[in-house]
Amino acid sequence: xxxxxxxxxxxxxxxxxxxxxxxxxxxxxxxxxxxxxxxxxxxxxxxxxxxxxxxxxxxxxxxxxxxxxxxxxxxxxxxxxxxxxxxxxxxxxxxxxxxxxxxxx
Length: 105
Fold this sequence. Notes:
mainly alpha
């Protein structure tokens, strides 16, 4: 199952995403949450500390800088391993800017 939460700013997308992610994880489902917002705060909704949430955003920003030596991950598993974190309830979170070579399914 894939769920995307989109809409106008300030409508509760992050809170809704965090709640859905945690509820599904508590039911024993494997949940991967991707925060693609320009102001990434999904970590807070998932129960991460402010410091850890900001650290994930900083990793994303470093990757986006043109002179960065860091490379984007070639797969979802690699991305989660290198740039992700496990939040409370077992939700895996990564802050991302774009997904290249999307493979449906």
